[in-house]
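Re: the 65-residue chain
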Amino acid sequence: MGVDVFQALEVKQLKVGSTGPATGAYTTTNVITTRSLNANVGDTLVTSDVLCTLIEDLKAKGIIE
């Protein structure tokens, strides 16, 4: 595949009565940057890393805090 899903899709911020990013101050710890997920394997550690990577990417883009 070679192209990360995050890079392949253009993410647009939805505005619902707000002009800034979604708030809630998401905090992640002990994250291993992972952008590959095998849907046929029930490994919650890998799934957690992918989710945390997504959260950190969204924070870096200013979509969430």
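The CA atoms of residues 20 and 55 lie 17 Å apart.
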